[in-house]
Design brief:
- The structure is a single chain.
- The protein is an alpha/beta fold.
- The protein is built from 26 helices and 29 strands.
- Helix 2 (115-132) packs across helix 21 (517-528), helix 5 (176-186) packs across helix 15 (341-354) and helix 12 (300-307) crosses helix 13 (311-322).
- It is globular, with a radius of gyration of 25 Å.
- The two termini are 13 Å apart.
- The relative contact order is 0.17.
Length: 795
């Protein structure tokens, strides 16, 4: 067994392999100081919870506490590898500032209370508002980090118990566009491809996807292909010089907000040069003529002028993509959180469809997730979707869900689409939404235009419930705080970005009076005395496994079919991809291998929207356009961003992630190695822009927009001219800063309130910004502290 530095060598030792070969096993392990493998009392099955990759792992338990982690060699996702957040993030479970008792607000202060008092306040306020205004006064905002059983329960309570349409997840900030793009192209959510396609692809194209830092283990898989024989070519589309860009065959550093123009330019060349699989397109798709007519107006010269790249690079990219025999495309936040998000992501689907690259090894598209259970939030219906990928505009789908829940069909709101988060906030701002229950997320740092968000959360008209494991910037506005158990302290399933389902077992007890989210939701339902049509308590389940069995019944016959899964099966096999049924008991590696799609008018999850305006398509229109349920090629014209650089704000500002932190650092900021690796916010500036502003590495600079200003140390290089970058992870919980006041650290002090018209995903990557020097460097830039990790390569 060898050792590596798990911080400065995050992708570990190379294990090269060639196309079609099995990815070699490498088992990564990190244990608490002084604990050896032989000292571990037991290893408990789980998977990673601090990114979306779904790395299978075992939790080490020593003396009733989590003492480390070990990658699962037999897991289909990671073959034993773990990323830095996997290796060190578990330490947050034992942080001394865990919430261990409920809190309620008295005389303006949060004070300790009993569960009965806290839940009594929540229930009494719920009933008051139901009597005064009805269910439209109540809203729920959840996470991408809970378990499927918890999302399904929350969806049942909100939709079937209360009858509110106001339920969304923070997947709205993260991968709402992934879901929207898949619905627009294929009629339904669900990733067509699989991580195993990396093993076969001869071209891998990453569109706005810094895989090296967001999915480090999957990037290790790509690096191992690059180190082996016959490596794939790599295309990177990103304004920053990321590790992906540095490894790429071709890097397109297009301007923020121009992704549709870039994709149209690439598709122009695909069509112009005849790199279209016309047999596949004619047999499996509709919409080719409209798409070809649209992209005809985007020759490389026009696209290059809009995007700020060389026309020759666009031609080179198209040639690379057009000549691929096995093309794998991935998409993430560089497209999802930017201008024309859904339209741009759909153009990547168009590329794959035009090339006939679906359903075969090495070919496909992954509209990626950013969170470990974002897929569950969507499929269970705990966001702007209906449970089981059902279509809210299809009365038969709503009636089927009502039968499953044994409630009246009129109880489930379907008079319009489920309310997305940004609209919920507007309702709270105007006073029509009076109750908001936030679980496992931190909107006071993660949402755009934070000054506005704080004013909404702090409103005396809003009753705010926050369910979390720690006090956060958001809990400081709460009327009731509920202490929640987290990963390793409860049992449940979660599904990653390539549809792989894992079981995570309870390893240790939660601290103090903290409870699993499932228990909290069910306690609320029982106190509210929800009943089904048979008079029995609703929801009808009572623990994690019965909730999973209920979810299986809800998913049966739908694209996300779990009916062939069980806790017993998931204890034997480390990761199984849905759909898993009696016909496919081992799961399904790729969707659409037979050229059939989930797009039939009576079956599809969505009838789609106009990609530019967001206007919904009527069922009759959809049926006429796509009567046979084929995949849909959808065109979109480029329109300029709503906020563009000007004389006073000459830069584009984008925000994003670092490999060492997850979201608002609620957990990773409490892991010593991760905190030391990236302790403070920084500002990335190109060398030319830094010189023009008189800035050197480590100087303190201020970046400002019409919403506010952030001060940060400068990192020079690594980004195209005219663009600035801030990581969004840094808020105020760990600095001396008055809660609820305007700050100068959080990137979202600067972003603006705008969202994609199709996915309703907020835009974080097209703000116009100014830059100025505040002070010269006072100290050298700190380097990450090495942290040893055991590595065992199995040849």
């Amino acid at each position: 067994m060898g050792k590596r530095d798990g911080i400065t060598e995050p992708w570990g030792t190379r294990t090269p392999y060639g196309p079609g070969q099995a990815w070699p096993v490498r088992v990564d392990t990190h244990l608490a100081d002084g604990v050896r493998p032989d000292d571990v009392d037991r290893w408990v099955r789980s998977a990673a919870v601090l990114h979306s990759n779904g790395d299978g792992l075992d939790i080490a338990v020593k003396d009733g506490r989590i003492a480390g982690v070990r990658g699962r060699a037999d897991d289909r996702v990671n073959h034993g590898r773990l990323d830095p957040k996997d290796l060190f993030g578990w330490q947050a479970n034992s942080a001394p500032d865990r919430l261990t008792t409920p809190l309620v607000r008295r005389d303006g202060e949060l004070v300790e209370a009993s569960w009965d008092e806290a839940m009594g306040l929540v229930v009494s306020r719920t009933k008051e508002l139901l009597d005064e205004q009805g269910p439209g006064a109540l809203g729920f905002y959840t996470s991408g980090q809970l378990f499927a059983e918890e999302y399904y329960t929350l969806a049942a309570i909100a939709r079937g118990g209360l009858g509110t349409n106001h339920l969304d997840g923070n997947t709205r900030l993260c991968t709402a566009t992934a879901a929207a793009a898949l619905k627009e192209s294929f009629g339904c959510d669900g990733q067509p491809a699989s991580y195993t396609d990396v093993d076969h692809a001869d071209v891998i194209a990453l569109f706005g996807h810094n895989m090296a830092e967001t999915q480090a283990v999957l990037w290790s898989r790509v690096l191992d292909r690059l180190a082996g024989p016959n490596p794939p070519a790599v295309l990177c589309v990103d304004p920053r010089d990321t590790p992906v860009a540095r490894a790429a065959t071709l890097h397109l550093a297009s301007l923020p907000g121009t992704n549709v123009a870039l994709m149209n330019g690439i598709l122009h060349e695909i069509v112009e040069h005849g790199w279209v699989d016309r047999e596949y397109v004619d047999r499996c798709t509709v919409g080719y003529d409209d798409l070809a007519a649209m992209v005809a107006d985007y020759p490389p010269e026009r696209a290059a002028q809009i995007c700020g790249v060389d026309a020759g690079q666009i031609r080179e990219a198209a040639r690379l993509l057009g000549s691929a025999e096995r093309l794998l495309c991935t998409v993430l936040q560089g497209f999802y959180q930017s201008h024309q998000a859904s339209a741009a992501a759909v153009q990547v689907n168009n590329l794959v469809l035009l090339r006939g690259m679906l359903g075969k090894p090495g070919a496909g598209v992954l509209q990626m997730n950013g969170q470990p259970t974002a897929e569950n939030t969507r499929e269970c219906g705990a966001d702007g979707d209906l449970t089981g990928f059902r279509n809210w505009a299809n009365d038969a789908h709503v009636a089927e869900l009502a039968r499953l829940w044994n409630v009246d069909v009129g109880k489930i709101p379907h008079y319009g689409p489920p309310t997305h988060l940004m609209q919920m906030l507007r309702y709270a701002e105007t006073g029509t939404l009076r109750f908001l229950w936030v679980s496992a997320t931190n909107p006071a740092v993660s949402l755009p235009e934070l000054h506005r968000i704080r004013s909404i959360l702090d409103s005396s008209r809003l009753f705010l419930v926050v369910q979390d494991a720690f006090r956060t910037e958001t809990t400081e506005f709460a009327d009731v705080v509920l202490p929640a158990a987290i990963w390793g302290e409860k049992t449940g399933t979660f599904t990653n970005a390539d549809r792989t389902v894992h079981l995570s077992e309870k390893a240790v007890d939660p601290p103090g009076q903290a409870r699993p989210d499932l228990d909290i939701f069910l306690d609320y339902a029982r106190r509210m005395d929800f009943r089904g049509n048979d008079g029995e308590p609703f929801p009808q389940w009572h623990d994690a496994e019965t909730a999973f069995e209920a979810w299986k019944r809800a998913s049966a016959g739908r694209p996300c079919d779990y009916s062939g899964l069980s806790y017993a099966k998931l204890r034997e096999v480390s990761g199984i991809q849905w759909p898993c049924t009696s016909d496919s008991p081992d799961g399904t590696e790729r969707l659409y291998a037979d050229g059939k799609f989930f797009a039939q008018p009576d079956y599809c999850e969505s009838y789609g929207r106009d990609l530019v305006t967001g206007a919904p398509m009527e069922p009759t229109e959809y049926r006429a356009m796509n009567p046979d349920g084929k995949a849909m090629l959808k065109a979109a014209e480029y329109v300029p961003p709503h906020e563009k650089p000007d004389e006073d704000h000459p830069f584009f500002l984008v925000n994003g992630r670092t490999i060492y932190h997850f979201h608002t650092r609620t957990k990773t900021g409490r892991a010593p190695e991760l905190r030391a690796a990236a302790p403070e916010v920084w500002l990335e500036v190109s060398a030319r822009d830094a010189e023009a502003a008189g800035l050197a590495e480590g100087d303190l600079a201020e970046v400002s927009t019409p919403r506010g200003a952030v001060r940060a140390r400068v990192r020079v290089g690594g980004i195209r001219d005219g663009v600035l970058f801030l990581p969004f992870h840094y808020g105020y919980w760990d600095v001396e800063h008055p809660a609820g006041k305007d700050g100068d650290r959080a990137a979202n002090e600067l972003t603006f309130t705008d969202w994609d018209p199709v996915s309703k995903q907020p835009l974080f990557k097209t703000a116009a910004a100014a830059l100025r020097k505040v002070a010269a460097v006072a100290a050298p830039r700190s380097e990450p502290v090495p942290a040893a990790v055991d590595e065992e390569v199995v040849r």
